[in-house]
């Protein structure tokens, strides 16, 4: 990896284009590097993973609304159009990226990478697949595009914290998706550079979308970034330019939205000919919840099975989760969000409430992407009673491990201390989720396939699941016409029984 030093440059201190971060990203995207076998294998896993979580969300209101918007836009004249998950219609690629991005993101259930910032790198896949279908690209080209998208997003997340300045993490996704599309289409650095700059400039937004009463926009935010990425590449291909230098400029993103005019970052990017392996550092979710809750769900399930008495609020004085700064302030009591303790809160809010999640996993000994968030489940009196005894606190040791660069040291869990009315104290800890590469049961191909089969029950015919798996697992060999098979059609169209309200389109 080459470590690129990035800082703000005054207007009277011009920065050559070739030294700008957006250009360095563009050079990575423009170089043709064959992915390694293990990287290709993981790309296939993540395509299956995205299909699984999208399948489980097909009937949800936000997904139906996004789909209706997409279906109102027929394929543009530049290609054959792209598929929309759950739909028989093809649509213009930017709208397919939009609808499919919402379906993938809706349940907060696909892959993650956490470092200086947060990310869900699987969000790169919908816009890349849409463009590939529309323009008739091969499966091999799509794989290389996805590899670039993951590489760029992960490398930005390693180096630049957005959340510290309350900027939403999709500001790293816009540039990565634009870069991935550049690789997919074999575009030169000049074109990708312009697209990356436009994508960053138009996808910076505040983190209020993940604060307080969290709205349906949480699922739309990455879909918006993917849609914008498609549009920015289109404009760049037509010779249109973008703000420059977009990162380092005196009035640019770093100077005014991030660490300010004196900021310095070190961004790692692969050197010439170096394999792009960042996807191997990412990890998926076994449970439908914020990633920092994954290990806590596993610990709570085990504790509940081993100690059923812990499930009764009458037996418990307090439950304190000692964890990282991120977990405490984003999904814990350190956020200061009263909604995280509100039984009437939205699903989007509850999946960002570790006090709620830990309580339900402890009481049920299980976690379900629908049942665990049901209003009647959240309102159960014994759950509310125990839930309100759960708090979080920051532990410097767990914060250090959260930010560790050594993968054997990096952790996203913590230590729970439960005080019982008898005076007994129960103390347990967990470092990583069971499904994590270093966890008790690391996810492999069979687990991704099982996740799809589980989430497809009652939604897809068994033959449809098998058809999709056959196509997905041949991804690097797919001819252009076969890419249309990377979607799913449900047994019963939820739009027929729960149509989305009409809008403008």
UniProtKB/TrEMBL annotation:
- Residues annotated as domain MmgE/PrpD N-terminal: 19-265
Q: Which UniProt keywords apply?
A: Lyase
Question: Is Ribosomal protein set as a keyword in this record?
Answer: no
Q: Which SUPFAM superfamilies match?
A: 2-methylcitrate dehydratase PrpD
The residue ranges crossing the membrane are none
**EC numbers on record:** 4.2.1.79
The chemistry this enzyme catalyses reads: (2S,3S)-2-methylcitrate = 2-methyl-cis-aconitate + H2O
Q: Where is the MmgE/PrpD C-terminal domain?
A: 287-475
Family matches, as InterPro entries = MmgE/PrpD_sf, MmgE/PrpD_sf_1, MmgE/PrpD_sf_2, MmgE_PrpD, MmgE_PrpD_C, MmgE_PrpD_N
* GO molecular function terms noted in the UniProt entry: 2-methylcitrate dehydratase activity
Similarity remark: Belongs to the PrpD family.
Q: How does this chain assemble?
A: Monomer.
Q: What is this protein called?
A: 2-methylcitrate dehydratase
Origin species, per record, is: Xylanimonas oleitrophica
């Amino acid at each position: 990896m080459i470590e690129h030093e990035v800082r703000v440059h005054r207007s009277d201190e011009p920065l050559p284009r070739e030294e700008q971060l957006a250009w360095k990203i563009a050079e990575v995207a423009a170089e043709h590097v064959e992915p390694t076998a293990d990287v290709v294998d993981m790309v296939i896993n993540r395509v299956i993973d995205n299909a699984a979580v999208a399948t489980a969300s097909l009937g949800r209101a936000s997904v139906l609304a996004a789909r209706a918007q997409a279906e109102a836009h027929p394929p543009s004249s530049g290609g054959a159009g792209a598929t929309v998950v759950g739909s028989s219609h093809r649509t213009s690629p930017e709208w397919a990226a939009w609808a499919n991005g919402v379906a993938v993101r809706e349940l907060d259930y696909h892959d993650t990478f956490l470092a200086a910032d947060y990310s869900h790198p699987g969000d790169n896949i919908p816009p890349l697949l849409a463009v590939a279908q529309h323009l008739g690209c091969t499966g091999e080209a799509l794989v290389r595009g996805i590899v670039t998208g993951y590489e760029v997003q992960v490398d930005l997340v390693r180096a630049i914290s957005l959340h510290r300045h309350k900027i939403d993490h999709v500001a790293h996704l816009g540039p990565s998706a634009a870069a991935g599309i550049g690789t997919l289409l074999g575009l030169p650095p000049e074109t990708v550079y312009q697209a990356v700059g436009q994508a960053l400039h138009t996808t910076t937004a505040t983190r209020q979308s993940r604060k307080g009463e969290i709205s349906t926009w949480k699922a739309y935010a990455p879909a918006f970034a993917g849609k914008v990425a498609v549009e920015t590449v289109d404009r760049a291909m037509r010779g249109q330019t973008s703000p420059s230098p977009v990162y380092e400029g005196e009035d640019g993103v770093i100077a005014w939205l991030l660490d300010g005019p004196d900021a310095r970052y070190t961004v790692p990017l692969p050197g010439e000919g170096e394999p792009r392996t960042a996807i191997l550092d990412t990890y998926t979710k076994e449970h439908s919840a914020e990633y920092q809750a994954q290990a806590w769900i596993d610990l709570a399930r085990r504790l509940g099975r081993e100690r059923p008495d812990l499930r009764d609020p009458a037996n418990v004085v307090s439950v304190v989760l000692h964890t990282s700064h991120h977990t405490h302030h984003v999904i814990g009591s350190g956020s200061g969000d009263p909604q995280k303790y509100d039984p009437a809160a939205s699903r989007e809010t509850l999946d960002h409430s570790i006090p709620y999640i830990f309580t339900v996993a402890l009481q049920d000994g299980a976690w379900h992407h629908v049942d665990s968030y049901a209003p009647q489940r959240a309102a159960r009196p014994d759950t509310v009673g125990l839930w309100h005894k759960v708090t979080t606190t920051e532990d410097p040791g767990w914060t250090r491990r959260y930010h560790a660069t050594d993968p054997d040291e990096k952790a996203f869990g913590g230590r729970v201390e439960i005080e019982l009315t008898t005076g007994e104290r129960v103390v347990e800890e967990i470092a990583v989720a069971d499904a994590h590469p270093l966890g008790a049961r690391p996810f492999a191909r069979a687990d991704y396939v099982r996740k799809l089969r589980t989430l497809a029950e009652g939604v897809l015919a068994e033959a449809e699941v098998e058809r999709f798996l056959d196509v997905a697992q041949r991804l690097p060999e797919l001819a252009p016409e076969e890419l249309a098979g990377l979607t799913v059609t449900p047994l019963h169209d939820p739009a027929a029984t729960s149509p989305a309200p009409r809008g403008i389109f």
